[in-house]
Write a structure and sequence with these properties.
The structure is a homodimer of 415-residue chains.
Chain A: H1 4-19, H2 23-39, H3 41-57, H4 62-68, H5 72-87, E1 95-100, E2 106-113, E3 116-121, H6 126-137, E4 141-145, H7 151-167, E5 175-177, H8 183-190, E6 198-202, H9 205-214, E7 227-231, H10 237-249, E8 258-264, H11 265-281, E9 285-288, H12 290-295, E10 300-301, H13 304-308, E11 315-321, H14 324-334, E12 339-343, H15 347-356, E13 361-366, H16 373-376, E14 383-385, E15 393-395, E16 401-412
Helix pairs in contact in A: 2-5, 2-7, 3-7, 5-6, 6-7
């Protein structure tokens, strides 16, 4: 079995060096990693072919095979991702706040790296590069464990990044990949609290839940999104239609896609037929509550379970509500605290919705699809946190940091 | 068995009301709670007497009995604690940052409550009041579980606070105490992730480790402090003596007391005899490395285990180091990432120590005893976090909050 403690020690050693590195040196190393990925494309594609062949032999679904696939374009995409991380602001060294205490001590709260970040993910090899890049920029060592389906690709990618680090004169152990993809080793990694400061699982909701249940290391939970759009009585209905269709069908498989629409009863008879027509054009199946069904007789009745479900598919749940209060109550009960939107032209409704909805991101008159590190301007993201501890919403390099208090005195002792 | 899910639902309901409450209303309720504690002193002391009697019968140590004891002064202390929490700034509603995205969306990142906070603690009844007060001020429902040794005191205290909330026209379930102190129920509470947003254990290091290992709810780890003071070659030795004695003996049982002193070899022969004399006056036992023993022949030899140990007692470990680099390496290896201090008059040494030491608080020329919510100016604290996730160092009301992104648009959809 892989010696995880040894990997952990190497990671901590590399992390110490990395935590002291200046921004220009980090950015130069990231740009070299990007170049080296492109130079090494043949080797990487060769390794990826082995994974694809094994995937075909094991009858992996086409969708999964597509996630696994690398080609020249996708390698360029990963390299450009690293370059855009290099272009981002360095979060390390930033001062959150500072003050002088009554004892005349000067306190500064400064951003420092988290330390060693474990990332445990399923079959997408691009996570190896994205995660390594974001961790590196924020001064953290990356301790990676990808799915066995992508192991050859992941080894080729991490070997390329490690060689690149070495050629930059840096400790290659700033990026380490577990080559052993057994479940036993994954379980041991989830318990490696002496070395890992945080563990971020990336993958399906089921996978993330499994990691959350088994881990002893502090976790940041990402991903689940049962997102709602509430159409207020005062909504601009054209805006509402465009936003709902965008949030549902622009990319239905992702966590910030809308899964439910709540409609104010005073506009339901006017609005729902228009919405049904647009959804039909886009091949979206509707599951409605009783009131919706009384207006749209063809819809499938929604069950209690539907209100909890993240479909990630061309399906949407619709409920007619008596007003804003019922909408807020319904959303706070059934949502996954990811992204929620109100469509309204009324100031008081907008304010109340934003104050009372408990979610990472609460929109007025915009599509939930904007909950994304890129769209927020973070350049890249390591995931979207749906927990409240440490980070909430899209997580960029800033969210991979913690703080340290620097306290400067002149001989103070406590009375 | 207590129905924890029902308590969880009540907590969430109370939390919703509390999250929407204005600062003046919260402060008025806190001041009323303080007054009601003092008014209800007889009932509280009566309940405490039952706990003390049981403690005497079970041969509890005198130190533990002292922690359990309440008297008029201590009740006034708890009440004044609530009043000082009322005087503090309200963290809710503060904006951390805001910007306009390339899609012309306005994003505001605003402070909101964490939600329902579980506190699991040992025998100190004052935690019931401190924790309830800090959670309340930061808009969080408190879900408390204290040790069985203090159950009568805790019930009297929480009943007083709950009655006070009710009289203020608020939901009394903003503060709930588990009356059932069985281990089974405690275990179920640690797994109550549907209702608890975070769990903070308070107590001995052993107790905290146990909770960290068993919990499924996100944890904030507090408390362990193996704190070091490094005396640099350029130190003002009088300052160094005063700071070391203060950090060691002003209150040896607490986590921010100094446990180890590292001394630069170039000043060891001059400094160590002076330090030994001061420590002897204060009845502190010295455990030294070989070089220390060569200068102070009477000291007990330190073992490898000593370097890891938090004594919380009149014992100190002393090691002579070749210089700053060895001091930093030693501290980063053995410390618990709590509080570390360098005594120096040299700018470069001070800067390097603060940049390279990995700890919540890194001091120059001050006692480690200042790592404390009160001394930091937070008014009160719920504990001192020694983990890196979410909060690091003293945790006041601000650290019991998370953020929500408010995104305002005008019909934006994602291309």
């Amino acid at each position: 079995m892989t010696n995880l403690n040894e990997m952990g020690q190497k990671a901590q050693k590399a992390e110490f060096q990395l935590s002291q590195l200046g921004t220009l040196d980090k950015n130069a190393a990231l740009r070299k990693m990007a170049d080296d990925l492109e130079k090494n494309a043949a080797t990487i594609l060769n390794a990826n072919e082995k994974d694809l062949k094994a995937a075909q032999e094991s009858d992996m679904s086409k969708a999964m095979q597509d996630r696994l696939l690398l080609d020249a374009d996708r390698i360029k995409g990963m390299a450009d991702g690293l370059r855009s991380i290099a272009d981002q602001e360095d979060p390390i060294g930033k001062v959150d706040r500072g003050w002088t205490t009554e004892d005349n001590l000067d306190i500064i709260q400064q951003r420092v790296p988290l330390g060693v970040i474990g990332i445990i993910f399923e079959a997408r090899p691009n996570v190896t590069v994205d995660a390594a890049g974001l961790c590196f920029k924020s001064g953290n060592a990356a301790f990676l464990r990808g799915g066995k389906e992508a192991i050859n690709s992941n080894i080729a990618l991490s070997d390329t990044l490690r060689a690149s680090l070495k050629e930059s004169g840096l400790d290659e152990n700033a990026v380490q990949l577990l080559h052993d993809t057994s479940h036993e080793t994954a379980q041991s990694m989830m318990e490696l609290s002496d070395y890992l400061d945080v563990l971020i699982p990336r993958g399906s909701g089921k996978f993330i839940k499994m990691v959350v249940n088994k881990a002893k290391v502090p976790i940041i939970e990402t991903g689940a999104g049962n997102c709602h759009i509430y159409v207020d009585e005062s909504a601009d209905q054209d805006k509402a239609l465009k936003i709902i269709i965008n949030a549902k069908v622009q990319r239905p498989s992702v966590c910030n896609a809308a899964e439910k629409v709540l409609v104010n009863e005073n506009i339901a008879e006017e609005f729902l037929p228009k919405l049904a027509e647009e959804l039909k054009k886009n091949k979206v199946e509707i599951r409605g509550d009783e009131k919706t069904k009384s207006i749209l007789p063809d819809v499938i009745p929604a069950t209690e379970e539907d209100w909890y479900t993240e479909y990630n598919d061309y399906i949407i749940g619709i409920k007619v509500v008596t007003g804003l209060d019922e909408a807020i109550e319904h959303i706070n009960k059934y949502n996954t605290k990811h992204s929620e939107s109100i469509i309204t032209e009324n100031y008081a409704s907008a304010r109340k919705f934003q104050k009372q909805i408990d979610a990472a991101v609460v929109y007025v008159n915009a599509s939930t699809r904007f909950t994304d590190g890129g769209k927020f301007g973070f350049g890249a993201e390591i995931g979207i946190s749906t927990q409240k501890l440490h980070a909430r919403g899209p997580m960029g390099a800033h969210e991979l940091t913690t703080t340290k208090y620097l306290v400067n005195g002149s001989g103070q002792i406590r009375e």
